[in-house]
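Please produce the structure of this protein holding flavin mononucleotide.
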Amino acid sequence: MDVFTAISQRCSVRAYKATEVEEDKIRKILEAARLSPSASNRQDWKFVIVRNKETKKKLAKAAFGQTFIGEAPIAIVACGPEPKTFMACGQPAYTVDVSIAFAYMILQAYELGLGTCWIGAFEEGEVKKILNIPKEVRVVAMTPLGYPNQSPSPKSRKSLDQIVCYERYE
Ligand SMILES: Cc1cc2nc3c(=O)[nH]c(=O)nc-3n(C[C@H](O)[C@H](O)[C@H](O)COP(=O)(O)O)c2cc1C
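Below is the modeled complex.
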């Protein structure tokens, strides 16, 4: 599968089979994150892999009852350990860096036949308590990971005309 095929066909998956995910596939998804680019190559990220059923249920509750997080055999929680680092452009490095790595993981998962769903709706304080994440560390995103139990169709997107302009902002 080429990169554009993965980008254009991947969809968020919100129903999962209980089937375990092979270790070599998990490893490849984590490698995709490890090899991602980051500001000044800081690689300032940490990914918590959760397999414990009770812990996943608690994460689903912390994500306002998105129960499918608990259905998947794995949940991945992406953290930024150094949230006080800002880039010269004023953006916090951790949100950008962790999000790039997470996007790479999600695409790699798709190529391996696995489903994911970027979860941004969660109570960060609750997630930190559940996973023993230190106070200074920020939680950027989480996703279930597993074999899809649904075949969602690609969602519509804005046209290029709506999102691109040339030479100056219009
Ligand atoms: C930053 C971010 C946060 C999101 N949070 C959630 C979420 O909490 N729950 C959920 O079901 N989907 C969530 N999504 C998935 C989006 O709803 C989804 O990507 C979007 O509707 C496009 O659909 P697609 O992923 O199938 O292409 C999130 C996606 C992103 C990028």
